[in-house]
Amino acid sequence: MFGIHWGYIAILLVVVLIIFGPGRLPELGGAVGKAMREFRKATSELTNEVTSTVQSTKPEAPAPAPIVHSESAAKASTSEADPPKS
User: Fold this and answer.
1) Using N-to-C axis directions, what is the helix angle for 6-20 and 25-56, rounded to 10°?
2) Which of 21, 42, 64, 73 is the residue whose CA sits 20 to 30 A from 86?
3) 16 CB contacts (<8 Å, ≥6 apart)?
């Protein structure tokens, strides 16, 4: 869990139990749970806001350019459009 050895967690829990006592542990657990919920809520709201901002500012794709296959095809189409000179 987060790269922390289980022994360190056990020592930390014993120290917290000694400092705060068994009567305040439920209060501390509730406060930690409430703080974690608020943090997750704020994080998800921020993520949603950034995502919606990015999606609303995406540039539109440019229109596709006409396809010209070769120069001879382009010359043929322009020569057909011009009437012959007399």
Assistant:
1) 120
2) 73
3) 25, 28
pLDDT tens digit string along 38-84? 999 999 999 999 998 888 877 666 767 777 666 655 555 555 555 55
User: CA 74 to CA 54: how far, in whole Å?
Assistant: 42
Greatest pairwise CA separation for the chain in angstroms: 110
DSSP 84: P
Query: Rounded to the nearest 5°, which phi and psi values hold at 68?
Result: -115, 120
Q: Is the pTM of this model over 0.90?
A: no
62: left (phi over 0), alpha (psi -120 to 50) or beta: beta
Extended beta strands in the chain, E state = none
